[in-house]
Design a protein that fits this description.
It is a single chain. This protein is an alpha+beta fold. The protein has a domain of about 90 residues: Double Stranded RNA Binding Domain (2-Layer Sandwich). The chain is about 45% helix and about 15% strand. The chain is elongated. It has a three-stranded antiparallel sheet, covered by helices on one side.
Length: about 130
């Protein structure tokens, strides 16, 4: 993954933010929309593209384009920085290969404790019954 190549492939669009904000909302386009063509990216290898397409399939369009938005701040520049960080973090987190979990063997003493507890409970329940003369 080459971040400089990926950054050059990002396209940005400024849009008016939704929600409350008074008259300023109607004048200023502070929301930033980042689009990234994952399928035709030159900054990712073919294997990385395949992994990302499977892991972030819900965030991609049918053409394989990733769309992220940010309207957290009133500044367009800060929203742009936020959405870039968000995109890189999304890509990096989904490219990490998690370690395979090794099953651990249950110790003999733990098994023995469990069996002893079962025996004690069995004896308790047997003592609750009416005696059979």
């Amino acid at each position: 993954m080459d971040k400089t190549v990926l950054f050059s492939e990002f396209t940005f669009k400024a849009v008016r933010s939704s929600g409350a904000g008074g008259q300023n909302v109607n004048k200023v386009s502070s929301k930033v929309v980042l689009t990234f063509d994952l399928v035709n990216s030159k900054g990712l290898s073919e294997e990385e593209k395949m992994v990302l397409q499977t892991k972030i399939a819900t965030k991609l369009t049918q053409e394989g384009i990733l769309i992220l938005t940010s309207q957290e701040d009133r500044s367009q520049l800060k929203n742009k920085e936020i959405v870039i960080k968000k995109c890189f973090k999304l890509i990096e987190n989904n490219l990490l290969v998690s370690k395979e979990r090794k099953e651990t063997k249950i110790p003999r003493t733990v098994k023995q404790k469990r069996l002893n507890a079962k025996k004690v409970m069995s004896v308790l329940k047997q003592n609750r019954k009416k005696p059979n003369y």
